[in-house]
Hints:
By secondary structure, this protein is mainly α. The chain has one domain (18-140, 151-294). The chain has helices at residues 17-24, 26-40, 43-75, 77-90, 94-108, 110-139, 150-177, 180-190, 198-224, 232-260, 264-294, 324-348. The longest helix is centred in the N-terminal third of the chain and has 33 residues, at 43-75. The two termini are 64 Å apart.
Amino acid sequence: MTPPAEPGTADDSKPGILDRFRARYHWFDHVMRAQERYQESKGDFYAAGITYFTIFALFPMLMVGFAIGGFILANQPDLLADIQARITSTVSGDIGQQLIDLMDSAIKSRTSVGIIGLATAAWAGLGWMANLREALSQMWGGARNEAKGFVRTKLSDLTAMVGLFLALVLTIGLTVLGSSGAMKQVLEWFGLQDVPGVSIALRVASLAVSVLITWLLFTWIIARLPRESVSFRSALRAGLIAAVAFEIFKQVASIYLRSVVTGPAGATFGPVLGLMVFAYITARLILFATAWAATSRDNVLAAPVDPPYAAQITPRVEYREGLGIRGALTAAAVGAVGALGISRFVRRQ
Length: 349
């Protein structure tokens, strides 16, 4: 019978509160497993790397954007003249003229800026994609397939980057079509803009469409960007969790940014800091959702058991010369007992 624990002492065999919650609630146990996988796979480290490459890739993308704008303005002289007139009317003095000269120089150097921007964007984009795919693969427990060569890996990353770019373009287009402004325009076409409660329904529908589109995007990222094949079924629920959390984060971030960028410091550093925070939180959401998908019951693989080490037989040989101390003492004791017995036998005779 096990004695009762002494008063004031903790029973080590009793599970803690987290263990009891994990045993009682399956969803809580799943969240804890996902958090453990996220921490073991260095999710914060990979999220910081994704954020760095995201900010770094923006500058060559801006160069490409300026080059495209330069080509458009060079072929549209009326549009260029209209923009210059607006700059002159808005910004007076030498500053306005400097802006016009800067725009003219950007148009003249549009070819070189575009080539340099494309080359730098491709290099930075491949680094960003390699870091993202490695992070997602680590959330799935590391790449279990054989490593590819350098050229095949870069070609695979380039294909994934192009696919992600097309997915982002499609997502942005669907988001614009499903925005509240577009829906409001449709309601005006049908004359339903004055129906009571239509504004609330429009807002709810816009949020639902945004979550749906983001869900599809995140599901595609979780299922197709890791370096090993993952089924869409495994990524659907994880993508939905990430989409809902992302939408909540967007609403909170929009309120926060409106209150921050009102001051001079916020107007100067707010956009850059906001972009860094946005990229970091988004990366963490995607990685945690991937860890959640990887630790679900149907995706947890049995841990392989390593074979035992080979047995080594080492013979032990002891060599003793003579009786030794123990042998001499034993022989003396036996002799004394024998002598005592003989003497008693002789006396009886």
